[in-house]
Design goal:
Blueprint (H helix, E strand, L loop, with lengths): L3 E9 L2 E13 L3 E7 L13 E9 L3 E16 L7 E13 L11 E8 L2 H4 L5 E4 L11 E4 L5 E5 L2 E13 L4 E17 L1 H20 L5 E7 L5 H4 L5 E6 L11 H15 L1
Antiparallel strand pairs: 1-2, 1-4, 2-3, 3-6, 4-5, 5-6, 6-14, 7-12, 7-13, 8-9, 10-11, 11-12, 13-14
Length: 273
Amino acid sequence: MEEFDYWGECWLPEKPERRLGGRLSFSHERGLSLSLVGCLGHDPENDSEDEHAIVHGQAADAGSVTLRRCWHRGRSKSCSPGSPVLVIANYEARTAFLGAHFHSAEEMRFREAEVGYSHLIDWVEPRSFAWAHPPGEAGEHVDAVTYQRPAPITATVQSVEVSLASELTCEYGRFSARMDETYAVHLKAPEPWTVAEWIERIAASLQHLLTFATGVPNALTELVVRVPETGEAYRGSPHRWVRVVWWVTGARRTAEGATQRADQLTRWGMLFA
């Protein structure tokens, strides 16, 4: 997963009028961290009351944000001559949903998801691009690049519909052009699952399969879920697909060894239980 820094505001769902400005960050070293000017809880001196199952936010680069299991981890003060003292409250979170506001644990269950892996493209080789040099007119040199989208690979595993499909992105400039082909695994379950169930029941197994097939430790690099078309989260969000960001202490999102991958997988269940 890519690291980020988003600036915006956060609030508790039951108190949307009390909004606090701050920054939401994600890094592979520290995970999900939230710094706010002020405390979400009633008593800024009582850390035990400053733990929240759900926190809502709005960020300039991410849109609507929902933080799952957010807890206080300390505070600091910012002061400068001639300015009032600002109390900065620091939080950590287990999971972030980027693209929608969810109001209950029941809303955070999804029937459809897409997952990406660090070496998925190595498994689906050869690529779908072809480079040719057809003869041009009047001695011109012509280079032609063609792309043929491969047919999706579909299967059903333990009542879960699995589809491997490609996507082409193109960027054009005045003197340059770039074409990238990416692959993702689309999943559809017979009933709504939590993020933990998606990872434990299917995503982790696919990760092991790709590690075996490519001979290189694969990391789960992306997870997006589809918001159900019913409920408040869908009505309030222009996005049908929501990006999920999570973190495991000490784990890396790049492939650094099979031992670390196995250790990461054993701890996922505890974090999302």
